[in-house]
Design goal:
This protein has helices at residues 3-20, 42-47, 57-62, 66-81, 127-147, 158-175, 189-196, 198-215, 240-257, 288-303, and strands spanning 25-30, 35-39, 86-93, 99-110, 116-125, 179-186, 222-227, 230-236, 272-279, 309-310. By secondary structure, it is an alpha+beta fold. The chain folds into 2 domains: 3-131, PAS domain (Beta-Lactamase, 2-Layer Sandwich), CATH 3.30.450.20; 148-310, Reverse transcriptase/Diguanylate cyclase domain (Alpha-Beta Plaits), CATH 3.30.70.270. A 5-stranded antiparallel sheet has the order 2-1-5-4-3, with helices on both faces. It has a 5-stranded mixed sheet with strand order 7-8-6-9-10, with helices on both faces. The longest helix has 21 residues, at 127-147. The termini are far apart. Residues 86-138 form the PAC domain. It catalyses: 2 GTP = 3',3'-c-di-GMP + 2 diphosphate.
Length: 312
């Protein structure tokens, strides 16, 4: 045996030892037969399947989560045919029936004629990273939800109101369905605070949100705090008559709640004044028209003696 041959054998053994001592799992697939030419023994420690059970690409496909399979296989085959190195994340089935997240990093090897000869790559266990990403995503969603929520009452805030109004206005343009908005104000709320104190006033606001938000609205409707003791109800696909019924329902529910308000100039119980506006969304006017119109009608309701609804 020549020195060069001996050196090559030693080098090959060294490379094999290095590959099989890493946490990453090396593998090689012959492109013509789509069979595994090699896969590292680490695969058994990670997934539980014997090293010798990885015979062809079919074994790789079958041991992939059904929800990931089509996306990942189509992507990897297309990239490989095009000779493009690529990466893919997916859930791999373990022998015990559970799943772990895998990242496959793939290098496409070409022959002297430029044709795809084989694929070589590494599998990495990224389960911990995925769990961290999911936690961060969940935290991001929670923070986003908080950014759209009024901190005192739990109702949507003005930012959320503006966003939903824009969205529902666009939806109404497409569907040709009306959009309604109710501006709602607690009558004589300053006197309530003066009589009972601001902490009791905060409780009162929360009670109004609870009564109106849980009993008067449909899942798609939105209750938002507009400012102070003023709230807005966005009612998608709702005409004037239906919106008026919602407003009447809100008044009735508050009356049933029988929240004492001895300092009110209107009634010994808490009451509401409301302005109702309805529009057929179009490009001619902006969604702010609803807010402005409902607010003007709310003002008229308060000027007319409070504890009433103005819808035109």
């Amino acid at each position: 045996m020549s020195n060069d041959t001996a050196a090559m054998i030693v080098d090959s053994a060294v490379y094999k030892t290095l590959l099989e001592s890493t946490l990453a799992i090396p593998w090689k697939i012959d492109w013509e037969t789509l069979r595994f030419a090699y896969i590292g023994p680490q695969i058994e420690r990670l997934l539980g399947w014997p090293q010798g059970s990885w015979l062809s690409i079919d074994d790789w496909v079958e041991r992939m989560h059904p929800e990931d399979r089509e996306r990942v296989v189509n992507f990897c085959v297309a990239q490989s045919k095009a000779g493009i190195d690529h990466e893919a994340d997916y859930r791999a089935l373990k022998a015990d029936g559970s799943y772990v997240w895998i990242r496959d990093v793939v290098h496409v090897v070409r022959d002297d004629d430029g044709e795809v000869e084989s694929l070589i790559g590494f599998m990495f266990d990224i389960s911990e990273r995925k769990q961290t990403e999911e936690r961060l995503l969940r935290l991001q969603r929670e923070l986003e939800a908080l950014s759209y929520q009024d901190g005192l009452t739990g109702a949507a805030n003005r930012r959320r109101l503006d966003a939903v109004l824009e969205t529902e206005w666009a939806s109404g343009r497409r569907s040709g369905r009306p959009l309604s908005l109710i501006m709602l104000d607690i009558d004589c709320f300053k006197q309530y605070n003066d009589r009972f104190g601001h902490l009791a006033g905060d409780d009162c606001l929360r009670r109004v949100v609870e009564v109106v938000g849980t009993s008067a609205l449909r899942p798609r409707d939105l209750l938002a705090r507009f400012g102070g003791e003023e709230f807005a109800l966005v009612l998608p696909e709702t005409d004037r008559d239906a919106a008026l019924r919602v407003a009447q329902r809100c008044r009735a529910l508050i009356a049933e709640a029988a929240i004492a308000h001895p300092a009110s100039e209107v009634s010994p119980l808490l009451t509401l004044s409301m302005g109702v506006a309805t529009a057929l969304p179009s490009d001619v006017v902006a969604p702010t028209w609803l807010l402005e119109t409902a607010d003007r009608r709310l003002y008229r309701a308060k000027q007319g003696g409070r504890d009433r609804i103005v819808a035109e």
